[in-house]
Amino acid sequence: MRTIVKGMIAAGMLFSTTLHAQEKKKVALQYGAHQFGKRTDEAMEHWRSDRFGQFIHWGLYAIPGGVWNGKTYNYAAEFLKSSAKVPTATWDSLMYQFNPTQFDAKAWAKMAKQMGAKYMTITTKHHEGFCLWPSSYTSFNVGNTPYKKDILKQLVEAYNAEGIDVHFYYSVLDWHHPDWRYDIKNADDSIAFRRYLDFAYNQLKELATNYPTVKCFWFDGTWDNSIKKNGWWTWEVEKMLKQVRPGVIVNSRLRADDFGARHKDSNGDLMGDYESGYERRLPDPVKDIQVTNWDWEACMTIPENQWGYHREWNLSYTKTPLELVEMIVHTTSMGGNFLLNFGPQGNGVIRKEEQAIASTIGDWMKVNSEVIYNCDYAGWKKQDWGYFTKNKATGKVYMVVFNVPISGILKVQAPDDKTRISKTYLLTNSSQQLAIKETTKNQFNIYLPAQSFKEPFVIVLETTENGKGGKQYQDAKT
Ligand code: JFZ
User: Fold this and answer.
1) What is the Å distance from ligand 1's center to 141 Cα?
2) Which CATH class name applies to 42-373?
3) CA 226/CA 385 separation, integer angstroms
4) How does DSSP assign 421-473, residue by residue?
5) How far is the CA of 278 from the centre of ligand 1 (A)?
6) Taking the CB of residue 327, how many other CB atoms lie within 10 A of it?
7) Fewer beta carbons within 10 angstroms: which end of the chain, N or C?
8) Cα(350) to centroid(ligand 1), Å
9) Atom 1, ligand 1: residue with shortest CA distance
10) How far is CA 19 from CA 23, 187, 265, in A?
């Protein structure tokens, strides 16, 4: 009996695999992916060549900084309204305290420039609903605070003046707006939420129209059922933004399809222009290599999970500058962008701890940024000493070394028979070539000079593509 059942199960599995293979036919979607594979236009090439950006979370939550009525909340500071259960009217009245007299957009932009960021993503409106620009569609905006002035405009001007692109983060989820709904349970919800969607659509059109140099929209807060049931709206928004600002880039976190599938549609195709699901984690450089097939961006906090300013810097482990440098390199090596977050204080100043970290990252970038900007997945097998990146313009392959083996030997494996290494040297000293030996077919030892390295360093590999592969030694018969 048992065997028969097992046999039936096995037959059933076989049957369902065949069915599955046939089912590969795609379902028809109105609001699914509208383009397949990476975008190849100039705006997207530019986005992709940037590789390193600065994220800024700034809003009313910066004023209490994770502390409410004398109590410190460990949860993300931008969620304090929710974790301390602050009534909406009380939270919203923080706007009358918003007066960042020490805010200096130019100083922020200079800091970002020195750090090596090529773009900056600013929270125009986070979940609390407060707008950093004087929106015509709500009075809950910076224009009605004691500070009065348009924060967004100052940031766009200052960053653009430093040659840094500005991207707009926008939370669709809105704790302030009375028409926001988490789900649509009846006709009233449906009517109210439709008003909300019109409001958000108008705000986004306003942002795209009034700040013409915006290069990208970074959506958030789209995970609730209300949005999943209104996938059409996410596509309407994407279309509208691209119509108002041709070339503008939209992240995958905006989108839901006809059936509520998010990021990837019901056929498994990426919606939006790049994948934005890597949050506070990075893909595995060996197991997750499929990410090199699409554009993606990872966003990262310096503490464990604080995006907005929290008064207590040491609530959790804070990453060191070199750990962050390694993340920038790791991300570049897998063809992604890295967005590093900062949470300015309520008075408009970026805390000294974050300034110090940015400055150390910048010192490393100053010497080594050639291995980041306009670089991509190199196609070489990951090794324990660090990461490969490849410059798209020059074809140079870089070995970014984080771990020096005691042997002083770095192993590399050419990706194919054609690729030969013609020259190997340190990025900081191109006149000193490093010894290299082919040990077996397409595998090489590179010999480090006898010196100690205090920082992650770079070895340049110049390659030719007309080789015929190395010697094939006889494989053992076993
Ligand atoms: C969201 C926000 O709630 C948070 O405050 C911050 O702005 C961050 C950048 O985005 O948080 C998320 C969003 C998505 C995931 C996790 C946290 N996710 O996909 O795992």
Assistant:
1) 22
2) alpha beta
3) 47
4) EEEEEETTEEEEEPEEEEEETTEEEEEPPS---SS-EEEEEEEES-------P
5) 10
6) 16
7) C
8) 21
9) 220
10) 6, 39, 21
Name the fold adopted by 378-464.
Answer: Immunoglobulin-like (2.60.40)
Distance (Å, whole) CA 181 – CA 200: 13
Nearest CA to ligand 1 atom 20: 279
Nearest one of 444, 292, 448 to 377, comparing CA atoms: 292
The per-residue pLDDT for range 257-275, each reduced to its tens digit, is: 999 999 999 999 999 999 9
User: Which among 334, 326, 346, 463 has a CA at the least distance from the CA of 401?
Assistant: 326
pTM of the model: 0.93
Query: CA-based angle 172:177:181, to the nearest 5?
Result: 65
Residue 214's CB is within 10 A of a number of other CB atoms, namely: 23
CB 181 within 8 A of CB 189: yes
Residue 126 CA, closest ligand 1 atom number: 7
Tokens of 386: 């660090």
Residues in contact with ligand 1 by the CB-under-6-Å rule are: 76, 78, 220, 277, 279, 299, 307
User: What's the CA-to-centroid distance between 242 and ligand 1, angstroms?
Assistant: 24
Q: What are the structural domain ranges in the chain?
A: 42-373, 378-464
Structure token digits, residue 299? 């966003």
Structure confidence by residue, pLDDT tens digits, 47-69? 999 999 999 999 999 999 999 99
Strand-pair partners of 458 = 400
User: DSSP character for 345?
Assistant: -
